[in-house]
Structure formats: structure tokens, C-alpha cells
Specification:
It is a single chain. By secondary structure, the chain is α+β, with helices and mostly antiparallel strands. The protein contains nine helices and 13 strands. It has helices at 78-90, 112-127, 134-149, 155-162, 196-209, 211-232, 239-259, 264-275, 300-310; strands spanning 3-15, 26-41, 50-54, 59-64, 69-74, 96-102, 165-168, 174-176, 185-189, 280-284, 291-295, 312-315, 324-325. α2 crosses α3, α6 packs antiparallel against α7 and α8 runs antiparallel to α9. The relative contact order is 0.18. The protein binds (3R)-3-hydroxy-3-methyl-5-(phosphonooxy)pentanoic acid. (3R)-3-hydroxy-3-methyl-5-(phosphonooxy)pentanoic acid binds at residues 17-18, 20-21, 109, 111, 152-153, 155-156, 196, 200, 285-286, 290. (3R)-3-hydroxy-3-methyl-5-(phosphonooxy)pentanoic acid (PMV) binds next to α4 and α5.
Amino acid sequence: MTQSTASAPGKTILFGEHAVVFGKPAIAAAVDRRAIVTVNSKKSNINSNITFQSRSLDLKAELDLDKGHIKLIRGQSGILNYVMETLFKKHDGSPIDIQLEMKMPVGAGLGSSAAVTVATIAALDDFHNRKIEISQIAKVAHKVELTVQGAASPLDTAVSAHGGLIFLSKNFEIVPLKSDLKDYIVIGYTSNRGNTGEMVAGVKKRRDLHPEIMDPIINSVENITLKAKDMLDVETLNTEKMEILGELMNINQGLLDAMGVNILELSKMVYIARDAGAIGSKITGAGGGGSIIALCPGKTKDVLNALKIIENAIQADFSKKGIIIH
Ligand code: PMV
């Protein structure tokens, strides 16, 4: 191919973050805010490097695969580390031009790095006429995240590649769940991103220091996730199931607080959402900054408006589709 375009969605974690790092299950949903990656071939005599551009991120760079060097022309390099690592694994080094269009806020805990990685792998597979194998792409994307971040569960990359509402089992099996949470969930995000690596390390340290206290907390989160899975594996969520889900979210929030990943801004958003009518609200993702989610059937507008007074918020449009080849 001379040009290939692929996109992948962001995600939000509904239950089980942090516990998933200790091998516990988690539930996450793909959010229809996408990273769209286009790969174009370039004539080799113009410039032997790989060029990368993203208007939406105001980012421009040249990537030298041989030297592993990123020459930043404009913007911040964060996401480029994922692109570079992906190129090492999936590209032969021939000169190409990569364009990235980001339709999601970066650093808001929506899994932007996973979405960019998954979309880049899919675009490169298509570009090189390789078969698009979703599970394979999810696996490679997880390896990229591990290399760049040091620690990462396969949750973000699995949800971004497969799409839909997903239960990630203890042994990393992906089980699609039936529910459609459309119109019920609001995501509130702070302007400062928590550092996932630091948050994960903090929980690990607390667990190493006080296993007799932290293990029951982690086990409780596992039980919450398992109960939520039962609630969510139905076509239609009735009021009773919805209320149980809300309560499970609130208990999960208390346990995330106990794990030490809550901060004032997140706590404020959690309570503002409940005050505006959410039946459940909790941190989503690593905490320390980032985002919260609120379950608010019939009250999404009220919750959105209340959160927007202090921070940013969006309604979560879920995506049944993961990778799309355009
Ligand atoms: O903050 P996020 O969206 O990267 O989510 C991190 C979720 C953790 O469970 C804390 C870590 C992980 O790798 O699963």
C-alpha cells in the first residue's frame, strides 16, 4: 500500500484498576474518542528519516530508526516514545510519513497512549499488507507500553484493540460483556495527569509494607469487579442492577482512597457528581490526577454541568468497535 489509515478508541476503566496489577480482574469500556493514524510512503531520496506530524497535538518530529533518535521539531515528545517503539517492532525502516489525529484529550486517563500505539500498529500492518489480527495487535501494543512505561497491565491496549465493554479475567482472557452503558456515564477529568508509574509503585510499596491490610482491600476490589461483571453481562440494565452498580462504584472509590491514589480534586469531583444526581462515582485509571467516572442514568446533563464548573467533563460515548481500518 502507499497509504494506510487506522484508528483505535480510548477507554475508561469501570472497575478494578490497580488491583489488576496484582493479577485481579478488571472491567473497562472503549470510549468513542479515537486516535487516527495515517501512514504514507515517501520517496527515499527526499529524506531518509521517518516524519511524524500531528496538527491536533501541535507536534512535529523526525524519527531516526537506526539511531533510535527522536528529533523534535515542535511540541512535546511523550507520545513519540510509543510511536518509536512501535516502529522498532513493526516497521522495516523505509521512509514513511506518519500523521496522527487525536480526537480525545491527552493525559485525561482515557488511554491515549494505548490508542495511539494500537492505531499505529494497525496502520503499519495494513501498510505492509499484513493480515489485521486484533489479538496480536493488542499483545504487541501491550509490549510497547511495557517497554515505554516499565509497568502496565494489558487492559488499555486490549480494550482499545477489541472495543466494547470488556472483562479482563485473572489470566488476561478477554470476555466481552453484553450491556450497553450508552447515555449513562460521564467522565470528569482534571487538567493535571497523575503519573501511572508512580501511582502503581505507591500502591505496591503500601502492599509490601502492610500485606495483611492491603491484600484484603485488593481482594475486595476483585469481589466488586466480579459482582459488577454479573450486573453488566445483560442486554438491558434494569433499575435494580443499575443501583447495585452505582453502589459498587462507591465502594470501589473508598478502596481506591484506601490504596492511596485519591487526591483533593478527584474527591471533589466524585462528590460533586453524586450531589448532582450520580448514583455512583469513582476514580477511573491510576488516580493522583486524571479522571473520575460517574454513573448517572437520567442525570447526565446535570452531572456534566456540575463538573464543568470546577473541571472538564464529557459524556462517554462508548464504542462497540475497536480497531477500524479506514
Ligand atoms: O491511568 P491509566 O488510564 O493509565 O490506568 C492505569 C490503570 C492501572 O490499573 C493503575 C495500571 C494498569 O496498568 O492497569
